Amino acid sequence: MSERPPWWARDAHADRRPALMARQRIVRAIRQLFDDRDFVEVEAGILQVSPGNEAHLHAFATEIIGPDGARAPLYLHTSPEFACKKLLAAGEPRIFDFARVFRNRERGALHHPEFTMLEWYRANEDYDAVMRDCVDLLRLAAETAQVDRLRFRDRTVDPFAEPERITVAEAFSRFAGIDLLATVAGRDTDREALAAAARAADIRLADDDTWSDIFSRIMVERVEPRLGHERATILYEYPSAEAALARPKAGDVRVAERFELYACGVELANGFGELTDATEQRRRFAAEMDEKARVHGERYPIDEDFLAALAFMPNASGVALGFDRLVMLATGAPRIDQVIWTPVPG
Questions:
Q1: 10-163+231-338: what CATH class?
Q2: Where are the domains of the chain?
């Protein structure tokens, strides 16, 4: 099988150019939408003292060298989240960022080491508001690309249909026959109970799988393939153990104010009612880094400045949306590198 030509080859670029031009139109349309809603566009710094503290995200590391030759580690951020929340603490009420973000060990049809994350926040508004923003962005992308269906491979979605809304617990029950919340009590999770339920559903497990690993296996094998067909799906109320940056749901701390948006079986967005309790956030970060050390043998530092800012941050909701994936679905592109102007070599 012959290798694909480089992206800069004239014929290859000509094939990609219609999708790239649609990308530019969608960028302009989204900027106008946010401007009409009184958002300010910000530009979060890419170099950060911590790239984020999620166990299974992998960052690119570098260092800063001062005029005196002193060296200190820095990272390319995996999300603009920490910087954006500091801006909320500083008093910005509505912000968005077309952020270039970087994630190592990620490459495939839907993943790229460098990509664009559209992230936005609403101070003093609940996460239903940013859910509605997500729905509006689906429709705007389709209208701008002049299509009536979003597409990925053999799957399509009507972006103008009202999305299905389903809790994670309902999805586990419907698609895997598993009572998820029976394995959760407050912050605590019952690994053996979830493992027994997964085995009963014919899901293969490894002996060292944690509760979180088993949760992910069920999601990948039974739940995610059933989401976002014909109409988009909003999957919400994740277990608190799977929502490190989200606040608990009022009245039921087993679940958190976290949602994900799916279309054509593709995860497009991840949103939260944001956690502002610095003590709880530190505990969650420490737990995530303990897991990262166990599985991957490394830790990332905690951004103490971010934790300090949480004391001044208002209640807020926010979303991170994979912008390149949105363009893929609006243009029918089969791979993410088809909608990125200059893909990373490799």
A1: alpha beta
A2: 10-163+231-338
Contact 120, 134 (CB under 8 A): no
Segment 297-301 shows an average pLDDT of 96
* Residue 58 CB-half CA count within 13 A: 12
Query: What backbone phi and psi angles, to 5 degrees, belong to 100?
Result: -80, 125
* Each residue's pLDDT tens digit, 278-296: 999 999 999 999 999 999 9
240, burial (CB in 10 Å: exposed 0-12, middle 13-18, buried 19+): buried
Task: Tell me which residue of 114, 33, 79 sits closest to 271, measured CA to CA.
Answer: 79
- pTM above 0.85? yes
CA dihedral 258, 260, 261, 267 (to 10 degrees): 160
- AA identity, residue 165: R
Express each pLDDT in 110-121 by its tens digit. Answer: 999 999 999 999
CB neighbours of residue 315 within 10 Å: 14
